[in-house]
Design brief:
- This is Polyamine aminopropyltransferase.
- Catalyzes the irreversible transfer of a propylamine group from the amino donor S-adenosylmethioninamine (decarboxy-AdoMet) to putrescine (1,4-diaminobutane) to yield spermidine.
- Its EC number is 2.5.1.16.
- It catalyses: S-adenosyl 3-(methylsulfanyl)propylamine + putrescine = S-methyl-5'-thioadenosine + spermidine + H(+).
- Helix 2 links the parallel strand 7 and strand 8.
- It is built from ten helices and 13 strands.
- It folds into two domains: about 55 residues, Roll (Spermidine Synthase, Chain: A, domain 2), CATH 2.30.140.10; about 230 residues, Vaccinia Virus protein VP39 (Rossmann fold, 3-Layer(aba) Sandwich), CATH 3.40.50.150.
- The chain has a seven-stranded mixed beta sheet with strand order 9-8-7-10-11-13-12, with helices on both faces. The protein has a four-stranded antiparallel beta sheet with strand order 3-4-5-6, with no helix packed on it. It has a two-stranded antiparallel sheet with strand order 1-2.
- It is α/β, with parallel strands linked by helices.
Length: about 290
């Protein structure tokens, strides 16, 4: 095979046998922090694109596929969300979606790597739309694991939603997807609070998806998985909303659309009542993976 064919491509593996690519375009910045290697590209297909350690994180043109679906199924199902904790999410895209809900008074965003925040401010305004500098936002540069454990159960700080907007559960990040950490997050939820995370590509990493579902169901009474295609990730991608009392599957299409109107949620490009219901509608092969 002529390997020169790949010299102009940004490639990522989905597993040992599969992968995908985008044409490179122009490299805007690259470097290495104490935690990871980063690249910012201006690509012909997706506009500005951000990679960490060779993995695609976000891009200008498709970020809404991920961020809208990460945030709105949970927040639309909550009657009046006010406080949100985001662990990771340094690009500001999840925070931007949270701030669309008018009842939100405070976001605490805990990001390990300050460079992610700085690069997002520099290159990805079209992703965060100023949310990183919103007066309701508190940004903490520290380890999310340490932050949650230092708050601890019984302290005053509680949240209506906790979002794990992290890299995949590999290496040091794996501990943040453990049952222990999930239980520690659960202790920081208000009554009726919800916990959201991504669980990966079921077609290419079914064991990861089923393993994370086992972790969630060992901690929460209600676990609602849902799936959406993410162009930047090259696959159908899983997310899950967990709670002891609130089930987003009980919020039907008509009610979702009504809440969107009531809250005047602006600039939605993906999420609506139909997509809310569709995400939770599982084909048989997914049911099998989730129960394995």
């Amino acid at each position: 095979m002529d390997t020169s064919l790949f010299s102009d491509l940004l490639c990522e593996s989905l597993n040992d046998n599969s992968g995908f690519f985008f044409k490179k375009g122009r490299l805007l910045e690259q470097g290495e922090t104490p935690f990871q290697v980063y690249e910012v590209w201006d690509t012909p297909e997706l506009g500005k694109l951000f990679r960490l350690d060779g993995y695609f994180m976000t891009s200008e043109r498709d970020e809404f596929f991920y961020h809208e679906n990460m945030i709105h199924p949970a927040l639309v199902s909550h009657p009046e969300p006010e406080t949100v904790l985001i662990i990771g999410g340094g690009d500001g895209g999840s925070a931007d979606e949270v701030f669309k809900h008018p009842s939100v008074k405070r976001i605490v965003l805990v990001e390990l790597d300050k460079a992610v925040i700085d690069l997002s401010r520099k290159y990805f305004e079209s992703v965060h739309h100023g949310s990183l500098d919103d007066p309701r936002m508190e940004i903490l540069i520290e380890d999310g694991l340490k932050y949650v454990r230092e708050i601890g159960p019984g302290k005053e700080e509680k949240f209506d939603l906790i979002v794990l907007d992290l890299t995949d559960p590999l290496g040091p990040a794996a501990e943040l997807y453990s049952p222990r950490f999930m239980a520690e997050c659960k202790a920081l939820l208000n009554e009726g609070g919800m916990f959201v995370l991504h669980i990966g590509p079921p077609v290419y990493a079914p064991q990861r998806v089923s393993g994370l579902m086992k972790n969630l169901t060992s901690v929460f009474h209600i676990v609602a998985p849902y799936f959406v295609y993410i162009p930047l990730y090259g696959s159908l991608w899983g997310m899950a909303c967990a709670s002891d009392t609130r089930d987003p599957r009980q919020t039907n299409k008509a009610r979702v659309d009504e809440i969107i109107r009531e809250r005047s949620l602006p600039n939605l490009q993906y999420y609506n009542g139909a997509t809310h219901e569709a995400g939770f509608a599982l084909p048989e092969y997914l049911k099998k993976i989730l129960s394995s």
